[in-house]
Amino acid sequence: MEAITTAGHEVVQVLLGAERNTPDVGQLIHLLAGASVVVDVSVAPSLDGAESLRFHQTLTINLLAAELTTGVGHHVVLSVVGDRNSQDNGYFHAKAVQEELVRLSPVPYSIVHATQFFEFVRSIAELATIDNAARLAPAVVQPEAAQDVAESLGAIALGAPVNDTVELVGPDHFGLVEFVDLVLSTHREPQQPLSDEQALLLATEADHRVVPEEGSHPDVTSARLREWLRTQRDTKSG
């Protein structure tokens, strides 16, 4: 959140700990005293649908209640691009519930949809790997760098609440297998990415596109994957 500190504001991070235990309302009221903006970038401890739902639902309800008490004027939440109507992907459903809670609250808000981060590719491959093959849905993705998303979140937090959704996407489209293969080969990881129609880690059976809906007008971030990988490789070798 460099943009926020550069603008002269103080940033206080609230870490949920290794178990991602959700603070109660009283704890959050204490933590949010004096805050004008809350940026929720929390991640559920599991991609399991029920666990993700419990985590995001509980934390969001408690956060919004504490914000009302302390007078927070802007709730910014980081979410994901994906099919909000499908019940096939429990994680997307959990994020949809989280977003609806934010929309229904009287706290002014901005919901930020981001695509896959370059930095998380190896985790995606690890979760999808069976017998040294990363079995991935035949999805189309438009990934981006986490640093670009962080900078955008900072700018959004400093601005007025949009009471709507802002979409962030990377500048290039990739097949999910191609995306993962580019990163794994750069890091010389042993997994072999394979396309698998039954793999539903990032997409649903109904829609194998993990990109914004047609007709939307997302903000395009700047970092390109191949240039980012080259920088990572040069930094590591140096």
Radius of gyration: 18 Å
Portion of residues in beta strands equals 15-25%
Main sheet record:
5 strands, parallel
Assembly level: single chain
What low-confidence regions span 5 or more consecutive residues with pLDDT below 50?
A: 203-209
> How far from one another are the termini?
27 Å
Helix content: 25-40%
Number of strands: 11
The SSE string, one letter per element, is HHEHEHEHEEEHEEHEEEH
Description:
- By secondary structure, the protein is an alpha/beta fold.
- It contains 8 helices and 11 strands.
- Strands 1-2-3-7-11 form a 5-stranded parallel beta sheet, sandwiched between helices.
- The longest helix has 22 residues, at 49-70.
- It is globular and about 50 Å long.
- The model is unreliable at 203-209 (pLDDT under 50).
Structure at a glance:
The protein is of the alpha/beta class and 238 residues long. It has eight helices and eleven strands.
Please give a handful of descriptors for the protein shown.
five-stranded parallel β-sheet; single chain; 238 residues; alpha/beta; globular
